[in-house]
Amino acid sequence: MSRGGWTEQADGEPDALLSALGSKYSAEILCAAGTPKSAQALSEDIEIPIATCYRRIEELVDAGLLECEGRQLSTEGRRTNIYRRTLDEIEVDFSCEQPQFSQKRRTEAKNQLEDQLEH
């Protein structure tokens, strides 16, 4: 079902999604990941320990809210994963027996535009 760019989320477990969204720093990571960033960059941007950042990234990836876009070389010459959020907005409806989620997924066109503006 779609309404004004919103789609009902059919995949994913509601408990996993709510848990990932409810974890400390998850919202900050999602906000910071509008453009592709490494875990180290996300950790520095929102000023959280790198181990915590990696745990939150794993939860967000498992919930389908963040995805690995590829790998790049770090300044130390190591290959690092680069992450970007998969959606811009999410709506949760608690009026049913189980929470229902609607989301506005990011389009590839929007990703490309933001990448161009970043450079």
Could you walk me through the main structural features you see in this protein, from its secondary elements to its overall organization?
The protein has 119 residues and is of the alpha+beta class. The chain has one domain (2-118): Winged helix-like DNA-binding domain superfamily/Winged helix DNA-binding domain (Arc Repressor Mutant, subunit A, Orthogonal Bundle). 40% of the residues lie in helices and 29% in strands. The protein contains 5 helices and 7 strands. The protein has helices at 14-22, 26-32, 39-46, 50-62, 108-118; strands at residues 2-3, 6-8, 37-38, 66-73, 79-85, 87-93, 100-105. The strands form 2 sheets. The chain has a 4-stranded antiparallel sheet, with no helix packed on it. A hairpin with a 6-residue loop joins strand 6 and strand 7. Helix 1 (14-22) packs antiparallel against helix 4 (50-62) and helix 3 packs across helix 4 (50-62). The termini are far apart. The relative contact order is 0.19. The model has no long low-confidence stretch (mean pLDDT 82). Residues 105-119 have a biased composition (Basic and acidic residues). Residues 99-119 are annotated as: Disordered. This is Helix-turn-helix domain-containing protein. Pfam families: HTH_20 (PF12840).
